[in-house]
Specification:
heterodimer, A: alpha/beta, D-Maltodextrin-Binding Protein, domain 2, 2 domains, 5-stranded mixed sheet, 3-stranded antiparallel sheet, 13 helices, 10 strands, globular, B: mainly alpha, MetI-like fold, 10 helices, 0% strand, elongated
């Protein structure tokens, strides 16, 4: 009989233990001991005014709440011109950003030729504004040249360089600025000798009208962001960019200097460690796709799936 | 910003080629002309019918109010998603905003012809077709032209949306300028559209005045 009871008791204690643990992870419960005594118990998490940024902001906010911090959220406060000063003056404490564009915003002449050069130059550039960054995620939301699977197969395309062999046959769609920006067509010509026979400006930022033009065959290639849900949904092919024409844009938490303690940094690093471009596309799909999940709910679900809550 | 705009206008390179100001003006006028013509072909017969017979007035008023309330850029974006990029989506959006003023002008002009004049025409043996062509339409001309003038003004001002997708026209300056934070170029587009609308409106005002029956009577 005793042999029968032992596993039962063991199971009971596991259940009880997990109940206690889940009590800690309840955001409305009292802060876990240790976290409450940490410096900067209140963290104001913010985001730029687009959906993906709000989703990542929610990841940060929910993870910090779970660690017992008092989290205030001020999402969608605007563009980089608005939130960098807000970080510096303390009205917000933490925001997700993208490495390449952040560095260029801080220093227009910075070397953005490789992901490494960006990440190594960023801390110094941020320090001049009394800001700091944590470890960037693998997830990247950057410009890309995208073609349909059929085009990629027909011409055996792997990289943008391969596309240059078909210059005369390629019509390229992109936002109007792509025509003139150094990282747009001028950069593609310089790096790969790629000059499309025609450029079709479409002002929806690589959105549905651009995707439709690509799928209809009205254009052969399009400038679409790597985290666009249209890429997996339509089996589009992102052409490789071996010469880094498009600066790396890894997701990175940016905070006011000395605002985050070691616990918070650890929690945010854990998110960055798990956040890949594919995972970010899935999160975008949850919120922007037909499911229309609230960013906060999508964040909680993802964090739970990744085992990042309640530890 | 004003200086950048003036510099843009002063640069001779911006006045030639397929992206030059004359070419963009031409494209803009072409889209506008197509849209107003298409709208007139649709709205004119309907307006004459309703004005002459008096049937379907409620339908006309509600339908044209609905058309007026439609956001052109939204309609065009929707059509682009349904039909793909090309001339048709922006053109359809422009036709939709041009129909209500033309329809209202034609309908109101024909309906407001003095009933005794129409009765007199019928009494001397005119058939409906002749009453419409020789009595009602000439008398309705000032209101018809007024409606047309309103439609042209709206279409010219709105044709900038064609540049949202891959087309040209004066909107190209506005969308390209906004994308590059080049507000001088945005202003170039805005100033050209405004000037074009004012010039066209002035010409049409003169035309309406010259063709108004009361004035012709006095001139005689």
């Amino acid at each position: 009989m005793n042999k029968m009871k032992l596993p039962f008791i063991a199971a009971l204690s596991v259940v009880a233990g997990s109940l206690i643990l889940s009590g800690c992870s309840n955001p409305t419960a009292a802060p876990a001991p240790g976290a409450s005594s940490a410096a900067g118990g209140t963290v104001t998490v913010s985001s730029a005014d687009f959906t993906e940024s709000e989703i990542i902001g929610n990841l940060y906010a929910e993870a910090l709440k779970d660690k017992g911090y008092t989290v205030e959220t001020k999402f969608r406060i605007g563009s980089r011109e608005a939130y960098i000063p807000a970080l510096a003056d303390g009205s917000i404490d933490l925001i997700p950003d993208y490495t390449g564009n952040l560095l260029l915003a801080l220093d227009a002449k910075a070397d953005v030729s490789s992901p490494e050069s960006i990440v190594s130059a960023l801390p110094a550039a941020l320090e001049s504004k009394k800001l700091t960054m944590l470890t960037p995620a693998a997830a990247e939301d950057k410009d890309a040249v995208v073609v349909t699977r059929a085009t990629a197969d027909k011409w055996s395309l792997k990289s943008i360089e391969d596309l240059a062999a078909h210059n005369d046959e390629v019509v390229m769609a992109g936002p109007p600025e792509f025509n003139k920006r150094p990282v747009g067509l001028p950069g593609l010509e310089k790096n790969y000798g790629f000059v499309p026979s025609k450029f079709e400006p479409i002002s929806d930022g690589g959105g549905p009208a651009t995707v439709k033009a690509l799928l209809d065959g009205k254009v052969t290639a399009a400038n679409i962001f790597t985290t666009s849900t249209a890429i997996p949904a339509n089996d589009l092919v992102v052409l490789e960019d071996p010469k880094n024409n498009f600066p790396a844009q890894q997701v990175v938490p940016v905070a006011a200097a000395d605002k985050l303690d070691a616990n918070a940094v650890q929690a945010l690093d854990a998110i960055s460690a798990k956040l890949s471009t594919e995972e970010l596309i899935k999160l975008n799909e949850q919120v922007s796709g037909s499911a229309k999940v609230e960013p906060k709910q999508a964040a909680i679900t993802w964090l739970t799936e990744q085992g990042l809550l309640g530890n | 910003m004003i200086n950048e705009m003036l510099a843009y206008f002063a640069d001779a390179a911006n006045w030639s080629g397929s992206a030059g100001i004359p070419a963009r003006l031409g494209e803009h006028l072409w889209y506008s002309l197509l849209a107003v013509l298409a709208a007139a072909v649709i709205a004119f017969p309907v307006g004459v019918f309703i004005g002459h017979t008096g049937t379907g007035r409620v339908l006309l008023v509600s339908a044209s109010n609905v058309l007026r309330a439609l956001p052109s850029l939204g309609i065009m974006t929707l059509l682009v998603l349904l039909m793909g990029i090309g001339l048709l989506p922006p053109l359809a959006a422009l036709v939709l905003i041009a129909i209500p003023p033309i329809l209202a002008g034609v309908y109101a002009g024909v309906a407001n012809v003095e009933p005794s004049v129409v009765d007199a025409a019928r009494a001397i043996g005119m058939k409906d077709s002749r009453i419409i062509l020789q009595v009602e339409l000439p008398l309705a001309l000032p209101l018809i032209l007024g409606g047309l003038r309103g439609a042209i003004l709206q279409v010219v001002a709105t044709a900038t949306i064609a540049a949202y997708v891959n087309l040209g026209g004066l909107g190209r300056y506005i969308f390209d300028g906004l994308a590059l934070y080049d507000y001088g170029e945005v202003l170039v587009g805005a100033v050209l559209v405004t000037a074009l609308a004012l010039v066209l409106d002035g010409l049409l005002a003169l035309l309406v005045k010259a063709l108004s029956p009361a004035r012709r009577a006095i001139a005689r």
